């Protein structure tokens, strides 16, 4: 029965995506990408000078309805600089899901701080707020307005909710928990451009939101990231630090503190601006692809396609199938069969708590995260599949 079901699932995916070899998520260039990039080359403004960084930042902040946006070199450094300006430092702890890309934990580690892993809920793929609140009640105390881990003695400074595969986490309750335990909220919205919770764009709920424009994201700059905030002081500090902490002067090079060369080059921003001009087309295609998968899988009881949580609008960045508990033992066999048919698929990330650099980090019971890992597979999700 398992073999027959696996072959049926493979055939349904092939029906949706069509003939040929298909990667998980590929970029699509439909508009002014060549024109804008060529403009930077012809004018020799490919790096720190040129108009496209400002234009890209302006268009992005207007789209997500944030007051400020700062373009940087990638999503990991967006998280790093956001944590830094929010006061996270050596030996502080930062709460984050164990189910996320390793860059989330790496950004914390660069500061000498410590990831503290929390559980996820299969209904959202994000933070399980009920379990988290009960956990923090047991292991923390508030002293002098700071959240202290009673076991380690370290301050817990912040929480990083991750909107996994573009699906909104339970951000409302995360904010309530953060307020209760005196935590800064830095949203990892790397995958969530075009996703909303109660009609408000993800990445705009916390102090700061961080986005990624890697080649596999819904829009790409080749490599890049964006930091958004409604707080002028934070955005101004981030802009200053990511441009080497250089003071404005017509010719002198004066730097007033240790800064970072994290600014996005003009040539990358040119690509990003052109991509942003097509974001609504991309989002429409992603939702249409979800509906096709939903339709072809509806009579296969062993799997379902993950659907956006209530009160949410997802960008459906990566389409994800959820195996039933009984069928999950066939996960690797299904992935192997898909690869054999030149259909790229993958399991979700190995839990960060199981990776060598992070095995000794604090963590709560991660049963929900393990369940998601055991039962989930990402399947081809490129917007070009609907725009061929």
Which word captures the global form? globular
Helical region count?
12
The CATH homologous superfamily of the largest domain corresponds to Type I PLP-dependent aspartate aminotransferase-like (Major domain)
Mean pLDDT: 97
Low-confidence stretches: none
- For the record, give the distance between the C-alpha atoms at the N and C termini, rounded to a whole number: 35 Å
> If you compute it from the alpha carbons, what radius of gyration comes out, rounded to the nearest whole angstrom?
21 Å
Look at the structure and give the CATH class of the largest domain. Alpha Beta
- List how many beta strands DSSP finds: 16
Helix content: 25-40%
The appropriate CATH architecture of the largest domain is 3-Layer(aba) Sandwich
Helix and strand string, N-terminal first?
HHHEHEHEHEEEHEEEEEHHHEEEHEHE
For the largest sheet, list the strands in their spatial order. Answer: 1-11-10-7-6-2-3
CATH topological fold name of the largest domain: Aspartate Aminotransferase, domain 2
Kindly name the structural category: alpha/beta
**Can you tell me the number of structural domains?**
2
Largest sheet descriptor: 7 strands, mixed
Query: Beta fraction of the residues?
Result: 15-25%
């Amino acid at each position: 029965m398992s073999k027959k079901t696996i072959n049926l699932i493979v055939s349904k995916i092939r029906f949706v995506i069509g003939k040929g070899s298909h990667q998980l998520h590929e970029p699509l260039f439909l508009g002014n990408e060549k024109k804008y990039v060529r403009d930077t080359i012809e004018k020799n403004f490919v790096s720190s000078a040129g108009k496209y960084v400002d234009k890209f930042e302006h268009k992005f902040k207007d789209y997500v309805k944030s007051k400020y946006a700062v373009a940087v070199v990638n999503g990991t450094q967006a998280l790093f600089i956001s944590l830094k300006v929010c006061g996270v430092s050596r030996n502080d702890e930062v709460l984050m899901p164990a189910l996320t890309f390793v860059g989330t934990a790496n950004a914390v580690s660069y500061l000498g701080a410590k990831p503290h892993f929390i559980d996820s809920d299969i209904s959202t793929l994000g933070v399980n707020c009920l379990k988290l609140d009960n956990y923090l009640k047991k292991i923390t105390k508030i002293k002098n307005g700071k959240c202290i881990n009673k076991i380690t003695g370290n301050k817990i400074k912040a929480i990083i909710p991750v909107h996994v595969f573009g699906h909104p986490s339970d951000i409302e309750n995360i904010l309530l928990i953060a307020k209760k335990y005196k935590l800064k909220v830095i949203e990892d919205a790397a995958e969530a451009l075009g996703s909303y919770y109660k009609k408000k764009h993800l990445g705009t709920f916390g102090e700061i939101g961080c986005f990624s424009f890697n080649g596999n994201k819904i829009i790409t700059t080749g490599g890049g990231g964006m930091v958004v905030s409604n707080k002028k002081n934070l955005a101004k500090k981030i802009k200053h630090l990511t441009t080497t902490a250089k003071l404005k002067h017509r010719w002198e090079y004066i730097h007033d503190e240790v800064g970072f060369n994290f600014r996005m080059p003009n040539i990358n921003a040119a690509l990003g601006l052109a991509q942003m001009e097509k974001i609504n087309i991309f989002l429409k295609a992603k939702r249409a692809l979800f509906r096709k998968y939903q339709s072809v899988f509806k009579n296969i009881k062993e799997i379902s396609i993950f659907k956006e949580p209530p009160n949410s609008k997802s960008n459906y960045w990566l389409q994800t199938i959820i195996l039933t508990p009984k069928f999950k033992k066939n996960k690797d066999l299904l992935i192997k069969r898909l690869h054999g048919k030149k259909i790229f698929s993958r399991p979700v990330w190995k839990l960060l708590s199981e990776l060598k650099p992070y095995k000794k980090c604090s963590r709560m019971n991660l049963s929900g995260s393990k369940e998601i890992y055991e039962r989930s597979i990402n399947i081809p999700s490129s917007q070009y599949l609907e725009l061929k």
